[in-house]
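Appendix B. One record, verbatim.
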Amino acid sequence: MKLNVTPEQFEELIKRSYNLDIVYLLKLIDEQYDVSPLYRDSMKISAIYQSLIRKGLITEHDDKVTTLGKDLIEFVNAKSGPKLIKRKPATTDFEEWWKIYPGTDSFEYKGKKFTGTRAIRKGKDECRLKFDKIMLEGEYTAAQLIAALNYEVLQKKESSLATGTNRMTFMQNSVTYLNQRAFEAYIELINTGEEIKESPQKPRGGTDI
């Protein structure tokens, strides 16, 4: 595979803290070349591979080229045109997701109160970094993450109402939720058309302890 880079592109890559080793290995991965034997047998190539992950150009576990990585490949292939611009996820997307994440596992729903014991929305700065990283991977959109969160919260509230026990106590804190990618299962449910049946009635009763 040939790597043809113009002097102008080379200058732009250096400005963005990329080098030709990174670009070449990224293109191999994009062309579905198995690079694992390369980085297993060479400490230098292993360091380059880790740089791809650290810079958000490929995903950590399955070697998928992220949106950021595809932008870099497109820039190198273009030979001319605009400068390489690093994407930044919209701040408003994270803020919307953060706002709807439950603050604690205590809540009131359809006239019944459920008492919890802990805060589950925590680590805002850490969550922002993880959220942005997920966005740059390009596999999911912010709208999907927000929909998945709304789906899970509604599901747990409806289940709490049906069983009389607080199901929100099983909700992970926001940092763990993103690190373990808990949203993926709910995105799958939404994609398959699975809907939550909401109970219209307003139940009688007091507080669930």
